[in-house]
């Protein structure tokens, strides 16, 4: 991940995931984020990895470190 803790709007997330040419409904990205949220958050009541920034979008909030492969 190159932008940890940066807030991305729904449009920005969709552009990164699918490209500019794809047209989707307003809530499509919310559905995808919520599915991911349910899979990776240990406690949905106190999220640690994906934060919702109301009125703006979402933020990957976990610590990120580079590893050598």
What is the element layout, followed by pairings?
Elements (H helix, E strand, L loop, with lengths): L6 E2 L1 H9 L9 H13 L9 E4 L3 E4 L9
Antiparallel strand pairs: 1-3, 2-3
CATH fold name? Arc Repressor Mutant, subunit A
Q: Identify the strand order in the major beta sheet.
A: 1-3-2
Helix/strand-derived class? alpha+beta
User: pLDDT average, as an integer?
Assistant: 78
CATH architect. name: Orthogonal Bundle
For the record, the CATH class is Mainly Alpha
SSE order, as H and E?
EHHEE
Brief summary:
The protein has helices at 10-18, 28-40, and strands spanning 7-8, 50-53, 57-60. It is an alpha+beta fold and 69 residues long. The chain has one domain: Arc Repressor Mutant, subunit A (Orthogonal Bundle), CATH 1.10.10.
Keywords:
globular, 3 strands, 69 residues, Arc Repressor Mutant, subunit A, 32% helix, alpha+beta, 2 helices, three-stranded antiparallel β-sheet
Describe it for me?
This protein is α+β, with helices and mostly antiparallel strands. It has a single domain (7-60), classed as Orthogonal Bundle (Arc Repressor Mutant, subunit A). The chain has a 3-stranded antiparallel sheet. The radius of gyration is 13 Å and the shape is globular. The longest helix has 13 residues, at 28-40. Helix content is 32%, strand content 14%. The model has no long low-confidence stretch (mean pLDDT 78). A hairpin with a 3-residue loop joins β2 and β3 (57-60). It has 2 helices and 3 strands; from the N terminus they run βααββ. The two termini are 15 Å apart.
């Amino acid at each position: 991940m190159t932008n940890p803790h940066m807030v991305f709007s729904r449009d920005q997330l969709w552009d990164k995931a699918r490209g500019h040419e794809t047209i989707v409904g307003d809530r499509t990205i919310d559905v995808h984020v919520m599915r991911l949220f349910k899979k990776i958050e240990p406690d949905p009541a106190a999220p640690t990895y994906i934060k919702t920034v109301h009125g703006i979008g979402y933020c990957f909030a976990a610590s990120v470190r580079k590893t050598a492969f």
